[in-house]
Amino acid sequence: MILQAAGVILAALLAAFAILVRDERLRAFAVLGALALVPVLLVAHVWSTPQFEPFRDRPVLFALAAVLGGAAVLGAALWLERRPAWFPVAVAAAIPFRIPIESGGETASLLVPLYVVIGAGALAFVLPHLRRSFAEGRALAFVLPHLRRRFAEGGEEEEQEPKGKRSTERTRPALLEQLLAAAVVLYAVQATYSPDFDHALEQEVFFYVPFALLFVLLTRVRWTTYLATRCLAVLIGLGVLFAGIGFVEYATRHVLLSSNAVDANSYQSYFRVSSLFFDPNIYGRFLAVVVVLVCAVVLWSRERGRILAGAAVLFVALGGMVLSLSQSSLAALLAGLVVLAALRWGAGRTAVVVGPLAVAAVLVVLALPGASGVDFGSERSIDKTSSGRVDLVNGGLELFGDRPVWGYGSGSFEEEFRDQRKATRQRASSASHTIPVTVAAEQGVIGLLVYLGLLAAVFARLLHDAFTSMRRAAIGAALATLVLHTLVYAAFLEDPLTWALLGIGAAMAWQLQPSPRERALARAERRAARAARLPGPEPEGATALTAEPA
Questions:
Q1: DSSP run (H or E) holding 531
Q2: What is the pTM of this model?
């Protein structure tokens, strides 16, 4: 376990270094290191398990599968290296799909298509730097002398920007990147004392590290209107497809994949659909994000045909959400729409409309508890209506009270909750269904401060001046939808959509700011203007912000 813990921490450090480092070549080698280490950790973790027995007992089969998989990823990487604009489109197409893999009598649902895309995109980023290092005759040994030279020069060396092209890289990592890197490393460090280290390792190698690489790759993309439109078109197509499958499930009263929905439909009078997802709530979450993105297009558009097409998509997607019966998804959608309205028409106007409606809704629920099916005077009634969330939250808060500073360790909620509650609600106890409570119980005040700081940095970056651009407003509102969903369900940094929206939003926010060269020119112009006692130029970034296409 000591070697595994050291490997997890090293992988997290490499991912964090890739997020934070300024130099592109050092970043490439950090990405390569994390990309190589993750499968090694995973194979070492599952080597002695029954799930890996078919490969362990057939080494030739295992070697053949590894070679074929590596060749497929390398081939995709060579293709993406020549066509880098297809990487974000491939991410959008792969991000919702989980593939059920059965082995050793157990089935695991993995984001295999997305992992292939991330691996191919990472290799496409790394290969040019590897070729350059080999061409210089130093191969991988180039890293250490290059790193020493960068530190000796104080990191002031800047790569020359191609003429007529703005760099998408920040001069130095901002608070958002720093807190993301801290979250990845902290989760790995706190896994070392977790009673469920295996679960923490799986979280790190399946989610945190690969999604951190996804964030790095997406921040390097130049997000033009054309590229953003292509990605949105892919998400809309998937949303309509998933909703159509949901309609078929509802008509036939047969769920294709979700065991959670099957269990719920067996014991309830209503019928929940989940389409090609393994959880109706995750299905509803995906559709909620698509609805918010399409609503942004409709609100900012002046073309009648685009508005009508958007309305048709919204009709289909909202129908799919209703049939999922996901209360958390509907609540998250409302929050996202409120944020979108505030960015479109202003926070004051939105509050004037939304505030009275929210107060009226609360009063109706309190005055007519029978209509909502909730007796607010009974904790048991609330717990039943919320699918056991009250019991889970109370248990999580008790765990936090026992170890308030450092928590029980990453990934420990399920095991500690079962010990505390004597195996109550075993099927639902893998998370508190309230991310802050899960973080507090597992990581204590230390992790909670990083989580809250990360949320503040996320919205400061994504919502600042987002009203100036339809694309930025759409990304900010979609991320607000996801965050609200995590407050009443689960999976914040474990969801690839979170990292994807963060990467896209961070890149768009940076691309609207002036480059270092433009800032230097603006400073020189202001000095010259003051010397000549003439009015100074416009504030830095004003032209870039106002020139952003809607």
A1: helix 516-531
A2: 0.84
